[in-house]
From TrEMBL:
InterPro entries linked to this entry: HMCN1-like_VWA, Thr-specific_kinase-like, VWF_A, vWFA_dom_sf
UniProt protein name: VWFA domain-containing protein
CDD domains: vWFA
Main location: secreted
Keywords carried by this UniProt record: Secreted, Signal
Localisation: Secreted
Domain VWFA: 4-199
Domain of life per record: Eukaryota
Pfam families xref list: VWA_4
């Protein structure tokens, strides 16, 4: 079984309390999956997103690799920084993950971790510099349907209640998908366990769905 697993993560300052635990969990998932070869051959990629005010730091992309060490080395350079208003460039991050890295394996998994919704009144009543939606013209319909047409299974790790409306809107477009509850985790080790369980569950679910198609 060959699997592409892409982690998409909000890397703004508001994620500072979670990003270290999330990075440790990602490393643990990568090591665990590497030890499952040849049963499962996994390639891992990463897309970190921030907000439109962050310029060249808005997106951090790392294309798929089957090297655990290479991926861990890249991840060590990812930090929580930037961000302006409450919403973030969620659609830009998801779009980049779908269209700018090289998905290849038959089973494709995208695990999204974030604490804030995309821009636009449709998703939030929080203070928003772009209340009319993504300033680059991206829509949830466009991004999610491109994801679906590419055969990518979407999973979301919920950290706060601010993403409730986003989840409802996304599910209205592509149907139900698993949402993993990663919020209210008081200690870093607990966060690692929740994240690890979510990632493994996402991979197993996607493999089952792929085999049933």
């Amino acid at each position: 079984m060959e699997v592409d697993l892409c982690f998409v993560m909000d890397c703004t300052s508001s994620m500072g309390g979670h990003i270290k635990g999330a990075k440790n969990a990602i490393e643990r998932v990568v090591e665990y999956m590497a030890n499952m070869e040849p049963t499962i051959k996994i390639r891992v990629g990463f897309c970190g997103y921030r907000d439109h005010c962050d310029g060249s730091n808005r997106l951090q992309l790392f294309d798929f690799t089957n090297s655990c060490d290479e991926f861990k080395h890249y991840l060590s350079g990812v930090s929580a920084t930037g961000g302006g208003d409450a919403p973030e460039d969620v659609l830009g991050g998801l779009n980049a993950a779908v269209t700018r890295i090289t998905w290849r394996s038959p089973t494709r998994v995208l695990l999204h971790i974030g604490d804030c919704p995309p821009h636009g009144r449709r998703f939030t009543g929080l203070l928003d510099d772009y209340p009319d939606g993504d300033p680059n013209g991206l829509t949830a319909e466009q991004v999610l349907r491109e994801m679906r047409s590419a055969g990518i299974y979407y999973f979301f790790g919920k950290i706060t209640e601010y993403t409730e409306t986003m989840t409802e809107e996304f599910q209205s477009i592509i149907g139900e998908y698993p949402v993993f509850d990663i919020k209210n985790t008081p200690d870093p080790e607990g966060l690692v366990e929740k994240f690890f369980d979510a990632a493994c569950s996402a991979i197993n679910t996607a493999i089952t769905l792929s085999e049933s198609c």
